[in-house]
Amino acid sequence: MKPVMIFVEGKTGAHSTDSAFLRDCIYHWFGKKIDSKNGFFYIGGADELKIRAGFFGIEQLHSEILLIIDADTNPEARKKEIEEFQSANGLKFPYFLFPDNIHGGEVENLLVEIATNKPKMDCYVAYEKCIDRKLDIKDKIFAYVRAVTGSKESAKDQNRGFINEHFDLSHPSLQPLMKFLEPYF
Amino acid sequence: MANNNHFLKFRVENFKRFDEFELDNLGQFNLIVGDNNVGKSSVLEALMFDREYEIFLEYLYYVLCNLRHFDGLNEWFMIQYLKSLPKKNPDKIKFEAFYDDNTSLKSSLVFRKDGQHHWEQKGRLPDFPEREEMVSARQSINSIYEGRTTDTPYVPFQLGYSHQITDFYSKNIQSFKNRKEQFLKDLQTILSDIINLEISTTVADKPVILVSRKSLDANLPLGTYGDGVIKLFRILIEMQIHAGKRLMIDEIDTGIHFSRMKLFWKTVILSARANDVQLFATTHSDECIKCFKEALEETADDIKNDSRIIHLEETDPTTQQVKAFTFKFNEFENAVKNGNELR
Asked: Which residues in chain A are contacts of B217 at CB distance < 8 A?
């Protein structure tokens, strides 16, 4: 069987929230260790798919490709985009859109859901209310991890880990992702 | 391999950081490893040694220009550069090459105060007649101007691979039928269903290479295959240019994704084999060394037996003496497997 290669958003060489989260989920659910260097390809943003068509073509010959990216605001448009990309380039691979393959959103929506310390997560909501402005959900996660760990370093994208008391990887909202990944691990 | 362009052994004296330096027991596929600043790149430069003095000088100068991002040539700069090559004795650099057809050649580059230099050569067999020539820096520069610098058998690590790849391909592969056939064969190790490569002037505002594959109706531009594939593409072009000769590649693993390093190595090794290229590459990454070994494990025994890891080590920090230790496949296989540091 060909090795699994997960394509995620992010820059080559740097661990992203997406890859760290997936690495930890896969370990927690299936006991499989994925090396964040070897198991992931970083495709930049979702809009950069097209300029990597050839790359996907080569990968398809040598590995089992999974694409996991954010649905963002319009999941239907994103699905169409991916399917058109596949058919135009002779590619076929399963894909999953954060948070649950149905709704709009991103990986951080899942992280908010599975955060165990609700009062600390809600601090940020109060803060948004106070300044009367909606802030980026990524900042919310950063603030949460910083608050619960007390460390700025561990709150940074590349250092984040999810197998700890601050996140619940057995949370029901992760079921769709788990079902998607199960056949490959 | 039996080709009088390949080295079995090579010595150099008074060159750059080396008082005396010897590479022995060389194979066709040589990976040079060692700490930073131990002189890996200087070894590659010395290995460009050519029995034709003008050609060797042109190679050295090309590498200098590339490292310093210097693209003009002038007499003053050339003289300064030549003067900077010897380590201690400012008068003479010695090279001694032992080729795989059991011939050997001793050459010396002798400097004079007036900017002239001698090139003295002594060969063991009739096709390397003894000769002594005096060349001026101006003559050397002229020969470089006339020379085809793209043929320099050295791939520096800073080289921007995507830049001008279409030109490079078009000039060196597209116009040669035999080269193109072999080039496509070499690419099949990584892209098994490749059929053809074409240059198109219509898909973008400058010419691009389109890759045509069995499994796909549309031909995709090479650029969509990513930086790693473009680097490999460049190296495979060099294999065609230097077929039957030597090729030096500095920091061979730069820009290659970890998960594809083994496949990258396998493609490079098989291409070097098919084109009878003696390869000297450097790295300082353990991952790269490991993948070199793993790629070789998937090849035939004769290829394995022709591979070497050459470890450079500074044996005396005060004099900066560097020694090379050569390991054959069966020697480095276990060392790499057990995590013993060869680097």
From this structure: 90
